[in-house]
């Protein structure tokens, strides 16, 4: 299904590279996102072969399953690029584009994966009359909300040469979870009354969760599961009180997003041929070896550096690897840059710099500089922290209970046997109109052990209360009728 299809030619010029990056980044994770359904290319009939066309991307919602297919067409020549290039950009007309290639993608929201229409890295090199059509499926359950800045590294090859292309940012929006993060057992009642809160985002004993509550009655808490909250306002009218919760979830791992060889003034890594003074400079074919936790994470020479620093083809060399690498907590990692000489007769691979550099997630979020001899390497680490805010409310009601009603309840209140060895029977009468009644049992420290709420109660109450699981001691029974409270001691002696 195509959603809001629009030709890029009709878009504002300064939006082109943002849209192009959205198009190109989606296919890179084909090898790691097999759980997404395969996509089906669905483009309008009759569109030009040499054009740029792309579906628009629908935002996701946190904690809700997301699955969206996107279809697109890429051009043969630079003409469509020139038509939408930003002002001041010199794009020659009529030049054939050999191919487009996805090199790497960083900054993806946690929990989302991609499946493309061809193996990674996705190369679009079809020649006319075939069209350069493709599609991707984005699927998964986003684990964090917000606006995510996805950096796309792409290659455009013209006349056999890779055209320099800096990382292109793409904004992907994940809206907050619309579901409640806590529940109240009541919508309100006559003050004083208690509200029991059920937290729907439990830590389950895992570290990385923190909670902040504001109950709107002057009390706050940082407990995961707060005790019953009491509302004892002295007032003459109903009041709506907001209860707010903030949950901070810091459980996502640190990610290695990118590796860049920033400089190598000492020319420690090269493919020079000959002996001084007859030396022909050669460009090294760099790749990385990263070892951590006793395992080699990446030794594939195909995950090579783009260009090289020695002949100034590019000012900075960006390492290409398929997606962010998860870093284990407390683990040290060793990173080496090598020159691949397997294509050179009798050649062997050479290490660059002065040897391995080490790092860990303890460096924290940001760009960090590592030095190996004359070689300067920059690594970028990211880390997601999710913040959830939710608000609910209770209505604290002003309930005027007559003096006669309270006196009648107090006279009729009977608790027996008292002292008791296991249970007591509680009996009272409320006549002359329905009222909200709360029955609360607490210990001498004020901790609530039992609560029973009766809405619009009228008549006779006669029920047992089991105390067999409690320890010997003195307990307080509070009977709240409207805004009045009647308290009695209960002695438990087994």
From TrEMBL:
Signal peptide from the UniProt entry: 1-34
InterPro entries for this protein: Ig-like_fold, PKD_dom_sf, Secre_tail
Domain Secretion system C-terminal sorting: 415-491
Highest taxon above the source species: Bacteria
Keyword Translocase: no
Keyword entries, A-Z: Signal
NCBIfam families documented for this protein: Por_Secre_tail
Name of the protein in its database record: S-layer-like duplication domain-containing protein
Lineage: Bacteria, Pseudomonadati, Bacteroidota, Saprospiria, Saprospirales
